[in-house]
Amino acid sequence: MTDPGNPSPRHATMFSPAPGAAPLWRMILAQSAMELRVLLRNGEQLLLTMVIPVLLLVGFSVTTLVDLGSGAPVDYLTPGVLALAVMSTAFTGQAISTGFERRYGVLKRLGASPLSRFGLLAAKTLAVLAIQALQATVICTVAFTLGWSPTAGVGGVGYALALVLLATAAFSSLALLMAGTLRAEATLAAANLVYVVLLGLGGVVFPVERFPEFLWPVLEALPITALASGLRAVLTEGAAPPPLPLLVLALWTVAGAALASRLFRWE
């Protein structure tokens, strides 16, 4: 028999402590699961990310308030509304929630954990992607009900997914940059202001060509415009995937991630 006070080498090996942080990927998955639960429990966030884009899609598709050309309004609107949904989740909602997490000391506690800034950004981005999958399902279902007829093939769908992933990374890094440098109240005001401005100027509902020509280069350099125009090119126009939107979103992603990782403050 084994002496209880002197366990066998086998038991000692099985139950010996293993101090140290968990692997990075495991910490990211755990944090992303928590972020997802928080997002799903927040009614205001769901209103921003789900209800408003659907109302815009339905409202402007069944009325003639805006002249969108000779085609069906829903064909023009759906890519822009999908782009708005990406921005509302990855940027606006995430900036506000992270800003108040920082104010209430949640981020300070995370900063004392082994989770790095990169890990926090990755976890929040994964949670956002999960919400966006739900958004896209709802928006596309409503759009098909309204008569949407996308023209993209397999290559166009792959291009659209690449755009969404890049845009999510860009908007997430910009959200963390804002939330990690401004006070929570300032983040709330600034994030909502940016949402409204980009809704009007980013080619979501109103074509960029309706604005003065000297503004076109500025508007086309916006991440929301790049996402909306790229999605519209392949989903509505059936065109070859344009490289410019990918380039614009890649530049925003690199710049936003670099600044967020350098300037983000946990408290």
Automatic annotation (TrEMBL):
One of its GO terms (molecular function) is ABC-type transporter activity. Keywords: Antibiotic resistance, Cell membrane, Membrane, Transmembrane, Transmembrane helix, Transport. Its main location: membrane. The chain crosses the membrane at residues 46-66, 78-100, 121-144, 156-177, 189-208, 246-264. GO terms for cellular component: ATP-binding cassette (ABC) transporter complex. InterPro entries: ABC2_TM, ABC2_TM_bact-type, ABC_2_transport, Nod_factor_ABC_transporter. GO terms for biological process: response to antibiotic. It is a multi-pass membrane protein. It holds the Pfam family ABC2_membrane. Belongs to the ABC-2 integral membrane protein family. This is Transport permease protein. It comes from Halostreptopolyspora alba. The lineage of its organism: Bacteria, Bacillati, Actinomycetota, Actinomycetes, Streptosporangiales.
